Amino acid sequence: MTTAVCPGSFDPITLGHLDIVRRARALFDEVVVGVARNASKSALLSVDERVALARAAVADAGLDGVRVEVVPGLLVDFCREIGAGAVVKGLRGGADFDAELPMALMNRHLAGVETVFVAGDAALLHVASSLVKDIARYGGPVDDLVPPGVGDAVRAALARVQGSSR
Q: Which long-range contacts (CB under 8 A, 24 or more apart) does 130-138 make?
């Protein structure tokens, strides 16, 4: 059985993420959506919230053979732990490739884990978690960019943050 990991912070999960997971599932027997902590980013949603939203999105999309887990440390250690031989990353454009290539080479160097790059759906290339949060922060519509329930969770988290900053 071949297993791949689709890693990301998923803060929040978007329809673009689900598109890549769906494509990865067509290539691998099992796909693990790996919810990671990114030290260079300040997350809006807690890890538990991101995992719950990703699990609901995968279930709602009917993606059999896909599960969601937390990546507790280095991605390559997680891949070894679950027996994954590949990482799948979605690309929206050249800037994504430029950012992802050094990580892919390091993962191969550290653990022999290969990275498969999957081109995102052209209809979703503009969808990014950071943009979803920015739009929601200013009251804009995001529900057509994310799976059901995610927009509500983002708005609730923003309200918590705004309430605590007063």
A: 132/12, 132/14, 133/11, 133/12, 133/44, 133/158
